[in-house]
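Entry for iron/sulfur cluster complex. Fields follow.
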Amino acid sequence: MAAAGNKQALMSITYDIVAGDFVRGGEAAGKLKRVLQQLGLGANVIRRTAIATYEAEMNVVIHSYGGQLSVDITSETIEIICSDCGPGIPDIDQALQEGYSTASDDVREMGFGAGMGLPNIRRSADEFSITSTVGEGTQLQIRILHKAGE
Amino acid sequence: MSKLQPYFHSVALDIENCKGCTICIKHCPTEAIRVRDGKARILETRCIDCGECIKICPNHAKIAIADDFDALNKYAYTVALPAPSFFGQFQGPDVTVGKILQALLTLGFTSVYEVAKAAEHVSLAVRRYVEQSPIRPLISSACPAVVRLIQVRFPDLIEHLVPIQAPVDIAARFAKEDIMRKYDLKPEQIGAFFITPCPAKVTALRQPIGLENVWLDGAIPISTVYAKVLRVLPYLEDTPELQEASALGLLWGRASGEEDAVRAPKQVAVDGIRAVIDVLGEIEIGKFHDVDFIECQACRGGCVGGALTVQNPFLARVNLERLAKELPPESSLQLEKSFEERYNAGDYGLELNIEPRSILKLDDDFTKAIEKMELLEKTVAALPGLDCGSCGSPSCQALAEDIVQGLATEADCVFVLRDGVQSLAEDLLELARRVPGSISHEDEM
Ligand code: SF4
């Protein structure tokens, strides 16, 4: 995904995500939310970013062997890349359907993995793309337009 | 009360009693307190008047500015509006709702109107609103500290707040309308006084949120009224005819009372400001999306846990439940045509939008905010990360924010200061060792 226009990152942050750590799961999204609030971005932008990054982060926690959330903030956009090492997604179209999930039963019982993760991310993002290699990992690219200072 | 001050706060500092101990700064949910020059200061834009600092201060240096009985003298006719939680303050098998109401009359009020009765109206109005609104989850707006918390820390959740007035505001209006009709009085001749469990309500009265017309004239803390009522209570005959509210309204005084009355298909009751903050954070990321209604109360145990109450909140809860058993369980309101009429006329609804008041923003200008953010990161990295509070800010992160905003300096950190002093001392020693050419080394001996 080429950056919108020629916008350079004014600020970049990277968070590590630990697989299987449900206690700390959501922390990266939470920290990012605070940063966006401090930058004074609009409530709607913050909210969509929080949902997208939370779901992306939890996907890594639930399905992968670990990964990273990297965020570039430009004067107009929030560029998010969430990449993990893991089994990958064999059928992306299927994974994008609401309610489709490969989460194990015990994870579902905890209230996660309802199969809303990717559809929620897609709904929250202004642009969204996903690439995945079976046996290697998955990469999500999420762009949210924030129209500086809105 | 005048509404003119830009930021009126009920919660204030009693400077004499403040020892500058820094205990309060860590308990404030919005990081609104700093200790500077040995005294606590409350940052006006951040404080939500929750009263946590009043509860925690060991020196009783945090106080609530509220009304006293003197305020009654200004009015020809006065009506007391006791909060449901007020009734939980009194215990003993002889205590009845009727006696407590009678006691208020002996203290000088012309009449009484139970806020619990208005809570019945609000319960039905909220129930109706939950049925009609597509927004999920809906969050109760009855606790003013929670509403303010949402304004300053969770502004994107404002649309989730149920736009129905709090019971006390409805009570003040209904009581006054009633009195005006019966005695042919003008609104300004009648003083409506809330007997309040919390400072947030005192603030809400002077700086209303979502209301244009405030019918309430004053708020007297439960702690001010308690002793006076206790003194007369044993000598009173029961006056059941004074008591009008049902158990449903009275039980609003404790956590889960509102939830029990609203009866949404899937609902949650949350009490205690920390728990409320956690839940609001989770709502923001999309959890709770299948919950219909959330009761949120800033104080643990609900209103009986308010900073201006007297009784232990656990006992108050039991007392309240005992009194409620003596009352009709349900309100007969839903049978009345007046409820429908009022609901459809919008009588229960908020009159104005609730505005966001975000306190986290580093700067209004995005580019400047980014610059400050970079500076902030560097500053945080230079601090020890111990969150000791000795600097007077609640955490290293908060001190760094204060530094970036020009409200503090790095030397406020005792560790940075110590390192500075140490290296200064080393430099001095080094200088002292240098001997000027005109002095011979032997002279030193
Ligand atoms: S009343 Fe609450 S928000 Fe205000 S300073 Fe005290 S603890 Fe902080």
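NOTE: Chain A touches chain B at residues 10-11, 26, 29-30, 33-35, 37-41, 43-44, 46-47, 50-51, 54-55, 73, 75, 111, 120, 148-149 (CB under 8 Å).
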